[in-house]
């Protein structure tokens, strides 16, 4: 079923120059754009200290999720779908293993951080961006569908761990959120 879903999402790759350009751009610039959006939240006028706390938590979740992925990659060596003949690659090949997707982990860690801290509107917008980034990764042929699902799980898990460990209003939190 994973192969079938991956092929279905990837089936339009190479058929439309415009769609390939859009999906390639989302794959290339999606994560940096989401990070920029979070960074710009620092100067939010509404509930400033809570938003700043959430930005720090999102950054911690981002790095924790990517660290978790590196540990998983030591044990799970899944070939890329284009190497297995499942997908048509429209970007440069990757040099690491396929599972889990770092793009999915990064974007879902950020979105989950906002959702877990009650910033629902921002969190839903970031969740939509994360879903688009994930679809682009399968579309361009570099990931299986379950690679992005696995990445989403590691991102959400990282956000949940950070939620439990990094509390708002602590001395360290007040020091960080009071900066600038």
From TrEMBL:
Record key words, sorted: Membrane, Transmembrane, Transmembrane helix
Residues passing through the membrane, by range: 26-43, 55-77, 123-142, 148-166
Residue stretches making up the Phosphatidic acid phosphatase type 2/haloperoxidase domain: 54-163
Domain of life: Bacteria
Alphabetized InterPro entries for the sequence: PAP2/HPO (IPR000326), PAP2/HPO_sf (IPR036938)
Name recorded for this polypeptide: Undecaprenyl-diphosphatase
């Amino acid at each position: 079923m994973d192969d079938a879903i991956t092929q279905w999402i990837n089936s339009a790759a190479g058929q439309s120059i415009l769609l390939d350009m859009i999906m390639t751009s989302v794959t290339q610039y999606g994560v940096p754009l989401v990070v920029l959006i979070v960074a710009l939240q620092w100067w939010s006028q509404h509930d400033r200290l809570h938003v700043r706390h959430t930005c720090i938590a999102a950054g911690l979740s981002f790095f924790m999720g990517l660290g978790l992925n590196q540990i998983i990659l030591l044990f799970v060596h899944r070939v890329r779908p284009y190497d297995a003949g499942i997908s048509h690659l429209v970007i440069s090949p990757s040099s690491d293993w396929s599972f889990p997707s770092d793009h999915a982990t990064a974007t879902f860690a950020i979105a989950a951080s906002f959702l877990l801290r009650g910033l629902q509107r921002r969190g839903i917008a970031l969740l939509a961006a994360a879903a688009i980034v994930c679809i682009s990764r399968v579309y361009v042929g570099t990931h299986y569908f379950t690679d992005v699902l696995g990445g989403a799980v590691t991102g959400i898990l990282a956000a949940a761990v950070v939620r439990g460990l990094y509390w708002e209003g602590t001395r360290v939190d007040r020091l960080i959120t009071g900066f600038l």
